[in-house]
Specification:
With 697 residues, this protein is α+β, with helices and mostly antiparallel strands. Among the domains are: 11-71, no CATH class; 172-353, Sandwich (Jelly Rolls), CATH 2.60.120; 568-666, SH3 type barrels. The chain has helices at residues 43-50, 75-109, 267-271, 300-311, 380-397, 417-426, 442-459, 490-507, 533-550, 564-567, 675-696, and strands spanning 11-13, 28-30, 141-143, 152-154, 159-161, 170-174, 181-185, 198-204, 207-216, 226-237, 248-254, 275-284, 293-297, 316-322, 330-335, 348-353, 369-372, 407-410, 432-433, 470-471, 479-482, 517-520, 589-592, 596-600, 609-614, 618-624, 630-636, 639-644, 648-650. The strands form 8 sheets. Strands 3, 6, 7, 8, 9, 10, 11, 12, 13, 14, 15 and 16 form a 12-stranded antiparallel sheet that branches. Strands 28-27-26-23-29 form a 5-stranded antiparallel sheet, with no helix packed on it. It has a two-stranded antiparallel ribbon with strand order 1-2.
């Protein structure tokens, strides 16, 4: 109860109108209405008007017959009183400033040796009459250069004690991370609520709630003497707090085993975790309220345990908040400092240490128990016998002792596929499922069924495949198809064509290649330049026959460079005359697109080269051959020459040029093959006609 002049005199509790609490409470009632109206102001109304000096401006303040501040006849007197208080306040500030200046002058006038402060002994001294403040959350530590004046953060209900920091001491203000604070409930078999806004502790609808807080002490120097440790919590909600109960709320320090699978911890794991120490005091319901500060202090024995834990390289401090675990609903909620419903009053750990040692203590070595694997049973009968033996031992001497946390198992190389899959599952890797071969006969199928039954009896039924299993797809077998050897003569090529036509007529078209077929592509080789006109004509006939049988050749890509031996371009010769080009007026122009091109005396590779034209050389186009394979150009050193059409680019259609006869030919004309070549062509045509007749029959 408080009779402070800043609290509205018409504010009281529902049960007692004379009780006025100095903090917001849901049980507050406004008695300003003359007709006895039961009005319960909300928290915002209480903080804005009821619990401040502005209660006189509340619209309900005048309902009780008290005039509003704006219409009060004593308003000038109230203003004069406020001005007097303001003047007195300014006078006090001025005197304080003069006192500070005088102290500074006195300190500067002292000799240097007299300015060293005497470090007082470390103590925890509460100081009353301090303003209600919260310590600024700061995970970093501070080093005091001189004796700090102990301060006290007075909460709405409970006073908060801060340690006195001497010169050289380190004060750590630690806060948990989002993954280190939250709550668990007994009605949830899996999961937790780490990172939630609330620290629920107590019982609701028969369900037990635990709050958990985990601090990281890795920044505290190992070996530094710990002088004081405090854990501070701030209330957030008391909606389901039973004020008439006689329960208590306590803070437990859990053993470090809980830290191994902390992110996966559920209610059973945290509820059954061994308790190392209980941190006092135990708070009762009258000490719990929203925005109230509750502090737990480590005693001397607990400080020694914490210091030894840091020396043993245990950097996590895990705490559990316990409340009522049965009976009617009785739950209190502290603030976690995270989430949308938090008021940013996160739990804090104040840890005061002395100077760290020059050499930190060595990290203690940890002993491990090495357990060798049990040999794999050779068959199902041996496995069943081992199961029966283990059951008999358990009935005689009890269950086996749980494996210690520091165990190391020597894992051998898996002997079979099932062991390998089990190891993959234990490592968190997906399953790899292979196809089960189809039994070859009924006896094999019966044996597989009997074996699966024996395995189920010894090791249990098969575990259903997880959603992330991976099926091993057999590697595709590729059929490598080699190219058909190139025919050495026209007759051999013709025989192959006749054989393929006969096979197609009798057996049908060939089966398409499967997707796994890979064709072996032969390495291309350059075609040697024919040595005479007969060889050149024989090649033309061979290419014609192959085109009739297999189709035309695929065009050569534009980026492909054709060797000079296949283009009619011969290397530069020192005997060729220098190139002098004269263009005819009005004639179309063509430009050489090859690196270098031979300009010959006739329209064939059998004619001699007059000169070599480099890339970009321009000629006047004056004619062509009948098949447009060669172009007549003018004038080269005053003479007309011939150049292959595919070596020249022009903006006109070369087929519109006049057909000119070749002059000065040094070989047989291209259109008149020798007698033996005529016989070859006739023989080919005869064989093709016979094959076509046989196919039709």
């Amino acid at each position: 109860m408080s009779d402070h002049h800043d609290i509205c005199p018409f504010l009281g509790l529902q049960s007692d109108s004379s009780v006025r609490l100095s903090y917001p409470d849901r049980a507050h009632r406004c008695y300003a209405a003359p007709d006895g109206e039961n009005y319960l102001p909300d928290v915002e109304q209480q903080q804005s008007f009821c619990l401040t000096a502005q209660h006189v401006t509340c619209p309900r303040y005048g309902l009780a017959g008290v005039p509003l501040a704006s219409s009060s006849p004593n308003a000038p007197q109230s203003k004069r009183r406020q001005l007097s208080l303001r003047n007195a306040l300014w006078i006090g500030v001025g005197l304080a400033a003069l006192l500070v200046v005088w102290q500074l002058i006195r300190l500067l006038a002292q000799p240097p040796e007299a300015r060293q402060p005497i470090a007082p002994a470390v103590s925890v001294t509460p100081t009353p009459a301090a303003p209600a403040v919260m310590p600024t959350p700061d995970p970093a530590f501070t080093v005091a250069a001189a004796t700090a004046t102990p301060t006290t953060a007075i909460g709405l209900i409970e006073e908060i004690t801060t340690p006195t920091v001497a010169a050289g001491d380190l004060l750590f203000n630690l806060a948990p991370g989002a993954s280190g604070v939250g709550w668990v409930s007994s009605d949830e078999a899996r999961g937790n609520h780490l990172g939630d806004s609330f620290l629920h502790v107590g019982t609701v609808n028969g369900n037990i709630f635990h709050g958990v807080v985990q601090f990281d002490l890795s920044r505290v120097p190992r070996g530094a003497p710990i002088r004081a440790v405090f854990v501070n919590l701030t209330g957030l909600d008391d909606t389901r707090l039973d004020r008439s109960s006689n329960d208590s709320w306590q803070l437990r320090w859990l053993t470090p085993e809980i830290d191994e699978e902390w992110s996966r911890s559920n209610f059973q794991t945290i509820h059954n975790a061994p308790v190392l120490q209980t941190i006092l005091p135990a708070y009762r319901q009258e000490q719990l309220a929203p925005l109230a500060h509750n502090q737990f202090a480590f005693d001397a024995a607990q400080i020694d345990l914490l210091q030894q834990a840091l020396i043993d390289n245990q950097s996590l401090l895990t705490l559990r908040l316990d409340g009522p675990m049965g009976g009617s609903d009785n739950l209190f909620t502290w603030d976690s400092g995270f989430g949308p419903s938090s008021l940013q009053n996160a739990p804090s750990l104040w840890l005061l240490t002395g100077p760290p040692p020059a050499t930190p203590p060595p990290i203690p070595t940890q002993d491990y128990v090495v357990v060798t694997s049990t040999p794999t049973p050779e068959n199902v009968l041996t496995a069943a016998a081992q199961v029966e033996t283990a059951a008999a031992i358990e009935q005689q001497i009890g269950t086996a002792t749980p494996t210690p946390r520091t165990i190391v198992t020597a894992t051998p190389t898996p002997l079979n596929e099932s062991t390998a899959e089990a190891q993959r599952l234990a490592a968190g890797l997906p399953f790899v499922v292979i196809d089960t071969p189809t039994p070859g006969n009924a006896a094999t199928a019966a044996f597989n069924a009997a074996y699966a039954t024996a395995v189920a009896k010894t090791t249990g039924t098969w575990t259903p495949l997880p959603k992330d299993h991976v099926t091993a797809t057999p590697t595709a077998t590729f059929a490598v198809v080699t190219n058909t050897p190139t025919a050495r003569t026209i007759f051999e090529l013709l025989d192959r064509a006749i054989a393929e036509a006969t096979r197609t007529a009798t057996a049908g078209p060939p089966t398409p290649f499967p997707p796994g077929v890979v064709t072996a592509t032969a390495t291309p080789t350059g075609t040697p330049e024919p040595l005479n006109a007969e060889t050149a004509q024989a090649r033309i006939v061979l290419i014609t026959v192959e085109a009739l049988i297999y189709g035309t050749w695929t065009p050569t890509p534009t980026a492909t460079r054709i060797p000079p031996s296949q283009t009619g371009v011969t290397p530069a010769s020192p005997t060729l005359a220098p190139l002098e080009i004269t263009l005819q007026e009005g004639a179309p122009v063509g430009a050489v697109i090859a690196e270098v091109a031979n300009v010959r005396s006739g329209p064939d590779v059998g004619f001699g080269a007059l000169a070599q034209a480099p890339n970009g050389s321009q000629f006047s186009l004056v004619g062509r051959t009948e098949d447009s394979a060669w172009l007549a150009v003018c004038c080269l050193n005053g003479e007309q020459g011939w150049i292959a059409t595919y070596l020249v680019a022009s903006e006109i259609d070369v087929t519109t040029l006049p057909v000119l006869p070749a002059a000065g030919q040094s070989r047989a004309p291209a259109g008149q093959p020798s007698a033996w070549l005529i016989d070859v062509v006739r023989h080919v045509l005869t064989r093709l006609t016979s094959a076509a007749v046989a196919t039709d029959l």
